[in-house]
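name: query_chain
kind: protein
chains: 1
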Amino acid sequence: MALIDRINECHAWTRERFVPFVVDTRRLGSIRRDHAALLASFGTVFDVRPDAVVLADGARLPEQRTERLAAVVASLIDDGHIPALAHENYPIAESRGSAELFRLDRAALPFFGARAYGVHLNGYVRRDGGLHLWVAKRSAGKTTFPGQLDNLVAGGQPVGLGVRENLAKECAEEADIDARLAARAVACGAVSYRVDAPHGMRDDTLFLFDLELPENFVPRNSDGEVESFMLRPVAEVREIVAETRDYKFNCNLVVIDFLIRHGVIEPDEPGYLDLVTALRPLA
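structure:
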């Protein structure tokens, strides 16, 4: 196994299995063909075609679309096609910053293949002349990816919060990083991926932040989502990513990007440009 394998695993999806999800002439997602067949029974809500699923014109306002789709999602949950509600609404738009067209519960995003956003923070320390990364281990009781390794702080980008606001909230909940310290986090771009998921497609963009922490800082979790934290040399973290699948799949992208930006992976290494390019695919 190698670092490029971890990236490729985040881009593993079969285009032919999906059709566009179209709202007001805009492509807002990708729906699996077998899921499209399920939506045909909601004839007043969707126009299911061989090459697309189109939200019917009966709902023109964002609030109306949100309400109609919520009723469909509730029915799909009852039939076992979508997991239980996460009770976190996400804004759905054609692109980041464009007009919101409706809202969708986080649990339903993969079914409709709608683009989601999140924040991920690399917490690091300079110790003994080298970089060390804080690694979180997810709680065994989590419904998604229990017991896997994670970035120090990570969370989805919900309705009603700016990216910085959300980062500060997640920092406080997940690692007991106070607002003053969280404000020192440096924005470092984004990575994106599309991947087949158990209930459809994950189409995600992650906003990345680095935060250099005091050497005596020890993270503490307050929301029950993290079992423990470990401070590891970056060389050890690199080996974990390259040789195992211990990290939650998308966190590998965040770690690899960190290793490149901080010179742990250098341009003379074989496959360097492949890694850099694969982190940010064009489409």
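note: The mean pLDDT is 94.
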